[in-house]
Amino acid sequence: MSGAAETKDDRLQVRLSAEAKTVLQLAANYRHKTVSQFVLTTALAEAEKVIRENEAVSLSAADWKVFYDALSNPPAPNAALRKAFAKYQKTVG
Questions:
Q1: What is the mean pLDDT of each run of 10 residues along the chain (93 residues)?
Q2: Are the C-beta atoms of residues 67 and 59 closer than 8 Å to each other?
């Protein structure tokens, strides 16, 4: 989040039980935040974690070597690739 100059135009409403609200309030108090601040910062941190887990690729050292070698020394194009590239050039321009 970028800071004080950021405008906050969107709103998110959540229905929850009294027990859930009490738990959130207690946790927010421990962090010296409002419930809204606590929920937003916690939800954003979890959202970023989920995005990283689904968009980042981790490779072992052996897999990285295979991947790097394939990028550094690609095989010669076969007939199907040449045909696809010719079709692409014809379509795109």
A1: 72 96 98 97 98 94 96 94 95 87
A2: yes
